[in-house]
Amino acid sequence: MVTDDTIAIPQLLYEAVSRGKREWEQTFDSIGDLIFITDTNHTISRANRAMARHCGLRPEELPGRKCYDLFHDLASPPPYCPLRSLKEGGAPQAEEVEVAKFRGFFDISVSPLYNDEGTLAACVHVARDVTERKRAQEYRLELEQQLLQSQKLESLGVLTGGIAHDFNNILMIILGHCMLAKENQAVAPVVGHLDQIESAGNRAADLCRQMLAYAGKTPLVQTQIHLPALVRDMVHMLQPAFNKKVIIECDLDGDLPNLTCDEGKIQQIVMNLVVNAAESLGERGGNVKVTLRHKTVLQSEQEVDCFGNSIPPGTYLCLEVADTGCGMDQETRKRIFEPFFTTKFTGRGLGLSAISGIIKSHEGALQLCSAPGAGTTFSVYFPLPPCCPAGDQVAPPLPSPSKAAARLEGTILLVDDEEELRAVGCELLTSMGFKVIAASNGSEALAIWQERKSEIDLVLMDLTMPELDGVETYRALREDTSTLPVLFCSGYGDQDIRPCIGEDVHAGFISKPYQLNHLQRALAALWENRMPHAAEGFPA
Predict the structure, then answer these.
(1) Rounded distance, CA 265 to CA 527, Å?
(2) Which residues carry the post-translational modification 4-aspartylphosphate, per the record (predicted)?
(3) pTM over 0.85
């Protein structure tokens, strides 16, 4: 007997099944990941809306298509296809795949579906777009590499500065004895040999200066310069040395404020960048464009230099040197500022690594944009104003060589912890006409000063010493006297001492190794500041 209840039961079952199917389809289509089901021949039987959207198709257009065609634009499965492994009895797989068609990266997992006999019948593919995550990881990795490179170069700079300092001290001993030998009227053949020794020593000293420039530790002799004129003159000077197929174009904004900087070092930057740009063009030639303009960096722009350091907001003079040369790949860009690294030929020296140190010493920034076949652009940022620490002062004019060469008299307290340097220093100063009292460190120098201050006219002192270094000794002396002339000398630059001495006209600095006439002029300048109308001792 058929009742209403027996008719209603199938209807209820049908509605429940339909509702479940509808809910499953809604759930399937609401998932943001790309989901599709294939048979063992890679043919899609079902796909969600996210998959259709990514492929630019309607959901009903996907069944019957091959997954490798839709996903990879390939005519056959790629070698890394996870379905191959499953068909061979392997375990379910998940891996990250770069999909060129979609210009992104996907985490793809494949799960098997078996029939009642336990045979593989189909596979469920789930592809999650991880492109943004991947790019964020790559960006973070790039920043970490830039930071490591920056730390590496900074450490190398410290090492380079230390080596240059020690070599300068050794050169001071060699050149000092050489100068003494020449002063003692050596016979003509010997003088010739001494000239060769002096020439070689001076070349080594130039290399040390380049090493210190790389380390950002060279002394700055600052002046006000009109940068457009300097750049134009440098380009005009360099142009004849290049291949005639190299065309240099200048776009220099002439209405720019003067820059407070070390003119010689800025010339070195311009020369290195222009020469490197011209050489990158090779025999076929090409264009080099030198641009100088005013640039404002805003807080919101978050500009970074080529070492990954932020460029502070502010106003800059921006020098750009761009070429149409071969460009650089990522590996070359990473190493281009390493000392002695070159893509051309051996013996290139410190080049770009040195200018990075010069820019650092001017509190500037350097950017690099380059790609293989797309040329290279270097951008140098010089901050306005000022471009250097307040402690760095323009060097006072020195007396003329004729005055400095006069016979000098007085007593100098020579302070140096290296015995050989003290010995050669004593002989040099004695040959110039001074009486010399020697001390091996700052503590000994202070003790001698307290005992014999009435005799001492000037202090010539090394910067780096044990017990009390030069700065500490200077401060102790200044507590007792504000006018005693103090001349610092060091194989390093003057960055460490300039902020300490500030506006003190009775203190100065000279780099090791120094020439005899340079020392005479520096000593005479300090004496003049102390006694403008001196009738004896140092020449007025």
Answers:
(1) 29
(2) 462
(3) no
